[in-house]
Amino acid sequence: MNVADMISPVVKGIPPSGIRKFFDLVNEMKDAISLSIGEPDFVTPWNIREAGIYSLEKGHTHYSPNAGFMELREEISRYMKRKYKLEYNPRNQIIVTVGGSEGIDIALRSLVGPGDEVIIPEPSFVAYKPCTIFTGATPVIVNLRAEDEFKLTPELLESAITERTKVLVLPYPNNPTGAIMTYEDLEKIVAVLRDKNIMVISDEIYAELTYEGEHVSIASFPGMEDKTLVINGFSKAYAMTGWRLGYACGHPDLIAAMYKVHQYAIMSSPTTAQYAAIEALRNSDDDVSMMVREYNRRRRVMIDGFRKAGLDCFEPRGAFYVFPSIASTGMKSADFCEKLLVEEKVAVVPGTAFGECGEGFIRACYAYSIESIFEALKRIQRFTAKCRK
Amino acid sequence: MEEILEILETNGRLSDEQIALMLGKSVDEVRAAIQRLEQEGIITGYTALVNWEKTKKEMVTALIEVKVTPQRGEGFDRVAERIYRYPEVKACYLMSGGFDLTVIVEGRSMKEVALFVAEKLAPIESVLSTSTHFVLKKYKDKGTIFEEVEKDDREAVIL
């Protein structure tokens, strides 16, 4: 039997990442300054880690309820209200998932199938498109533009909507661009969606990392509450990526459907992580704001550094990425990244990893110590100066 | 203002220019603010965290168990104060159990520490007895683990 022939055509149809070679190169070069990482450099605050350890000491090593511990869902409910003015009943409107990623997957599986269309703005997180394809639905890509600061505009949205559109993925604050959608930006999107039967999957995993202003959720607009599923989690806000814990909040009927998929695919989210997460929501606001202040400083340094390197860089106001244009160097994204890595030992990610329209851009992450960022920027400036000669 | 302090407290070696970039302020503003903080005695100095054990400099630390007679009305506080006022004393704790005070003393040599105990500490009126233990190796001090080299063990590329 040829095992390769046994693989399902759907999975086979997902193309392998075109920049695999570049990733391998980064992995080999252990001493490079890597601005190519998409997770916090901070370690989970100690009180949160300690709560996890304590739960283990007490022997809490069993399954949790499928939707997550009630105590945690109650804390999530309070948090959503306190932070984003969103009201969710912890009994039937919140489900605790294995990272935000699982939330995206089971939301799509609960909503769409063959014949349906899912609108996905790009550049964006790499999972939306494959997860859509796994369901048999069709991804409809909206190419965002640097001149719009990578926001989803009502015109772009309108042009992508067809009779078969069932879901809009709204990934803000955005990975990889760092773009956010303000109240005014969202208002226009809400106007387009008002009389349409389209569900919004609003991936707000980076919501806490919003600078110079507050994050606004599209779910907080009148009429959008039932039409929006909010995805969030602990990875980015509390530096808990390895704990794999997220949650989704929305209409009871959608949560009930997701519950079904979650129950049979996952059973329940990690128990230790849930105990840690309760502590995170209760007692870690100071840690979060400390991290946000620190990211914000690095953000300013990064924007300045890339501009000094002669690369156009719009001001990102969310997440921990900058997404400068490398058009002025005349290079392709992949070539730029490979050359920068080989010549100056700085790793950044080609924009093409996040969609075809990412060509001509690079993603640089600032979840890295300020000393390393200063050093990396110095090298990038030296590199671009050399390229222009 | 407070953010400048937060930055300098974690890294006192960043330049005014770097701090200005981090805060989105002008270099002049930052320079003036730091000057003011220094004048007001809010920034009282700049120091380095040093692991002396990696240098050639001789340094010894001793943990001294001290038994004392508590004084009427004052308890242990009065005698403790007479001990912790000495600059050689780096830390002083009131203990439960077999003795009363833990006193951490630093000196250039064992002899120096021994002299301090014999000439300063033991003669204090309410001190009944002392028992001196010298530190052989420091694993962690002031929240810093000395042997541990912090390394970034994140995956090289995460999308």
Provide the descriptors you would attach to this structure in a database record.
heterodimer; A: 389 residues; alpha/beta; Aspartate Aminotransferase, domain 1; Aspartate Aminotransferase, domain 2; 7-stranded mixed sheet; B: 159 residues; alpha+beta; Alpha-Beta Plaits; 2 domains; 4-stranded antiparallel sheet; two-stranded antiparallel ribbon; elongated
Notes on the structure:
The complex is a heterodimer of chains A (389) and B (159). Chain A has 389 residues and is α/β, with parallel strands linked by helices. Chain A has helices at 3-6, 9-13, 20-28, 46-57, 70-84, 99-111, 128-135, 154-160, 183-193, 252-265, 271-283, 285-308, 333-344, 370-388; strands at residues 33-34, 94-97, 117-122, 138-143, 165-170, 199-203, 228-233, 246-249, 321-322, 346-347, 349-350, 362-365. The termini of chain A are far apart. Chain B is of the alpha+beta class and 159 residues long. Helices cover 31% and strands 21% of the residues of chain B. Chain B is built from five helices and six strands, in the order αααβαββαβββ. In chain B, strands 2-3-1-4 form a four-stranded antiparallel sheet. In chain B, strands 5-6 form a two-stranded antiparallel sheet. In chain B, a hairpin with a 6-residue loop joins strand 2 (89-94) and strand 3 (101-107). Chain A binds chain B through residues 23, 26-27, 32, 34, 36-39, 41, 125-126, 175-176, 293, 297-298, 300-301, 304, 347, 349, 353-354, 370-371, 374, and chain B through 3, 6-7, 11, 14, 18, 21-24, 152, 154-159.
